[in-house]
Design a protein that fits this description.
Blueprint (H helix, E strand, L loop, with lengths): L1 E4 L2 E7 L3 H6 L10 E4 L4 E3 L7 E6 L5 E8 L4 E3 L8 E6 L14 E2 L5
Parallel strand pairs: 2-3
Antiparallel strand pairs: 1-2, 1-9, 3-8, 4-7, 5-6, 5-8
Length: 112
C-alpha cells in the first residue's frame, strides 16, 4: 500500500501475519517505510534502532491518537476497542502535518 503524505508517497507494509507483526520495524535502520497493524491497540519500541511516529486509527482510518518521535524502549496502549483500532508506525517526523481527526487514505501500489 501507499500513503500520500504531502507531496511524498510512503510505502506501507501491512502486518497481516504473526511473524510480520512480531518483528515489526525492530532492527530496521534507516526506517524508510511505514507499517500498519490492523486490529491492534498497543505497540512497543523495544529493540528499535530509531524513533518512530505512531498513529492510532479508528475503523474509518481517522486519526484518534498521535505520538511523534516515540523513542525506543517505550510502550503505547490506545484505550479503544482492539477490533476497531489499527496502529500505523511511520518514520520519525513523517506525521508532522497530520492533525487529530484527519482521515488517512491508502492506495494500492499498482495504482499509477
Amino acid at each position: 500500500m501507499i500513503l500520500q503524505v504531502g507531496s511524498n508517497k510512503i510505502k506501507i507494509v501491512v502486518a497481516q501475519n504473526y511473524w510480520v507483526r512480531l518483528k515489526g520495524l525492530m532492527g530496521v535502520s534507516p526506517i524508510y517505510y511505514g507499517m500498519l497493524f490492523p486490529a491492534c491497540n498497543a505497540i512497543h519500541t523495544f529493540f528499535m534502532k530509531e524513533a518512530i511516529d505512531v498513529i492510532g486509527l479508528n475503523e474509518h482510518n481517522q486519526i484518534i491518537y498521535m505520538y511523534r518521535n516515540l523513542p525506543k524502549n517505550q510502550i503505547i496502549h490506545i484505550k479503544e476497542d482492539i477490533k476497531k483500532t489499527s496502529i500505523l508506525e511511520l518514520p520519525q517526523n513523517t506525521s508532522k502535518d497530520f492533525q487529530m481527526g484527519n482521515i488517512l487514505f491508502f492506495e494500492d501500489e499498482d495504482i499509477v
